[in-house]
Amino acid sequence: MSDNFVKQPILWTKALTKQVNTGDKQLTILQDIDLQVNAGEAVAIIGASGSGKSTLLGLLAGLDLPTSGKVHLDAIDIFTLDEDNRAALRGKILGFVFQSFQLLPALTAIENVMLPLELSAASNAEATARRLLERVGLSMRLHHYPKQLSGGEQQRVAIARAFATDPKLLLADEPTGNLDSATGIQIIELMFELNREHGTTLVLVTHDEALSRRCSRQIRLADGKLVQ
Amino acid sequence: MNHFKLSFRMLCRDWRAGELNVLVLALVIAVSGMATVGFFADRVELALSRESNQLLGADLLVISSKPLPEFYADEANRLGLSVSSLIKFPSMISNGENNLLTEIKAITEGYPLRGRVHLASRSSETTEIQVAGRIPQPGAIWVDEKVMTRLDLKGGDAVDVGDIQLTVTELVVREPDHSVGFINMGARAMINAADLPDTGLIQEGSRVSYQLLVAGEIKAVQQFRDWAKPQLTKAQRIEGIRDARPEIKAALERSEKFLSLAALASVVLAAAAIALAVRRFTQRHLDGCAVMRSLGASQKQLFYLYLYYFIILGVFASSIGCLIGFAAQEILTHWLTGIVDTELPWPNWLPALQGLLVGLVLLLGFALPPVLNLRSVPALRVLRRDIGLSNAHSIAGYLLGLVALSLLFIWKAQDLKLGLYIVIGFVSAIAIFGCLGWLLIRVLSSFRHQAGGAWRYGLASISRRAVSSVLQAVALGLGLMALLVLTLIQDDLIDDWHTSLPPDAPNHFLVNIQPDQLQPLEEFFQQYGIEHPPVFPMVRGRLIKINGKDVSPEDYADDPHAERHIRREFNLSWANQQTLDNQVVQGKWWSADSSEAVMSIEAGIAKTIGVKLGDELTYDIAGSPFSAKITSMRKVDWDSFRVNFFVVVPPGLLDNYPVSYITSFYVPPAEIAMMHELVRTFPNILVVDVAIVINQVQQMIHQVSQAIEFVFVFTVLAGFSVLYAAIASTQDERIYEAAIFRALGARREQLSRAWAAEFAILGGLAGLFASAGASVLGYVIGKHVLHLDYTFNPWIWLVGTSIGVIGVLVAGILGTRSALSSPPLLTLRKIG
To answer: Which of B107, B367, B414, B486 could form a disulfide with B278 if both were Cys (CB 3.0 to 4.6 A apart)?
Structure first.
């Protein structure tokens, strides 16, 4: 553990708090979250349904705004940036794997993987996408549409897409939530393999204790607070 | 990043994946409908004006009482126009002792530039009509039936025309510029202009009309007209068909307005279809935008991506629409030319450009604002699907579209008044329909607990999708309203023409009937079994004073039209009651027992000579003055071909002045022998045969009516695109809803009944809106734009509402079949 303090943290939060108004009441979803994730780490954020895991992930990625507190991503205080600059930062250093895959239905597998590369105007989008899809075992499915793929296959495409821009940090939100357990295990294997190969830092949100144990560190959330 | 390239790629991918089907189809149908109407209307307009120009013998005339300077012809030649000239004058023609005042036309090579001269070659049994491919040779004279009969001529006879003798070589049965004015209604003859100097008939002070005939490309003709106008001296004037023939002018202008109205209706339909299709598009692209935002796309990047995306899409789909429109009108034209005997000229390319532009403007107007909202889709949607865009956003988004639409209206109407009426009509309709729809849906939903099974779900469904339901009802209502307005006006327009010119419209006038001939004439008619037509007294007088002040033609030097009226004699008549074609627009008609010296004057002539109610006019009638005060002004329907007068006075006032009578009546073509007999029996009576003119006008009206009906059918087709887009716009929601319902155990039949109820309610609302809107808009347009006697049609409510219910119901059931039949698991997994 002591090594971690030597390493530069790629992500850290300071007193991160999120409250929402529900009619006359104010509901605290996250309260004073301080956490730090170092480069190369694999961290699991675990907790029961409704504990605030997904909200936390959304804030870490700058998809949502906190009520108070800070998130530093790659040494940048992301909430001092406007939404467009946060998006640009995401494009540069973040990869996402979602519970519901979030593939665009009108795009084939390879086009879905190419999309982030095209958005960042990368020059070799197609070759990179093809290589990644081959790596996740979908070389025979390049030109299939999401609806023609099984759930596991769709998630493989999503993983390939997440690694396409060679991100520093991969955020995964219940990546096996929509898959049966056998497929889930394969997907997790794949994700960890790629994580190692690319030297990516991983933050994984899950309610699955067994899955969380595959990570080097677990952060537990309960009622919007960290319980170490 | 090369946004354009990526946009193009995204577009191709969406297209391939079938994402664009509804939008492209709506756009293609809309633009093709509009382009078809545009192209076709354009061709019909060109054909109609060319056809009507045949009645003039040219596209444009420069007319003068003195020889025309060369520069007019030079300029026309320079503009590439065809040119011919003629000289017209009245003169005696004699055959031995028989003399006849004839209108002689000395023509040059090329006459007529539009239309044809028809000649009859008579053998003992048959009469063969031929088109004259030339003009009379020098030394020859072509005469009409009247000259033949009155001078007792046969082919080859010689007649004296001024100082020379000419040989009668042809009998003219029809010539293009056979005008309707009484003055020109006498006998007619044509000679070669080369013979004219030898006749010695043209002297200083002769009443001669020199005419330069011009024809060619519409643009060049217009250019010539614009150039010539400032060159005209007081003795010269320019006449196009619209100047020369008021009844044709009215028919042409109304049909043009109607056609542009039809084109406007198709714009409304296009807009409604596109607005609905775009709504579906944005809903389907919410996720994609959220994903792209999470993948690092900036708002600016998304904006440009979609801007280029829609520009490419708009140009592409509109081009296809234009091509289809062009092909469709080509087919339509072929079909139509089989029925009407006019060759439609090639259309110009403006409708294609318009179609392209309208498609693009509508697409950008309606698609861009919602898509601009897409860029603000919270990226958090990738984690939480329930986060979307607020409805307020999307409603405000239609504003740009509406502004674009309004501008298009005003542009397409080519008439500010018509355009503004429509813009105001549609904008208020949208506002009223929207509010009313919202209210009605609220009210109806509150009854849903009292309603039975299917209706309850239908109502629940409508109120759950309240915004989308209101939008659909408004869009469908607008589309239907456009169609209903068109139907109402079309019927009124065609009816109006048919009533003003029925098949038995008078085709002969008898002028100069003497009082002592009234009785014999009545007997003559009886003998031929023809109902004696009403005869009208006619007294001819020259206007000499207005309010006691002398007037002379020189006072009107600035206005050649007015000057001609003052120079000529007016026809005055008396009557107790107004005739059908007259409508008092100012002042009051006299009472039956009135003996005051009053008169009723036609409003147009009053304006021309500058008189008003209360003014006293004095006429010189055969040397004695006659004065009367104007107590009413009438609008006269001159298109009716019935006898009408500029000035009418109460009976009794003109008793002491020389009077003759005039009448008009219908003679069936088969009874034409009777007319020859009439001419022989009453040699002093001038018979004016307007059958040819009436025929031409009737034929034109027939063609216009038919063209209008065809164009209407196409507008209806465009209406289907709205229906399709409306049904497709909620397709995704329905598929999802069906999956859940069926997963919960609902039978297909239950679900389809609930939807049917929803569609029926939606269609009913749309139909109701459409009927209400059409009644008001139809009235306003009919009354103020087309100047028709608008007849309110209560059936419109029943018809409109029924069409709404049945149309939406049938389209809805057909459109949701696939949603009902897809297996629920597949759907639920897809939605995931």
So the answer is: B367
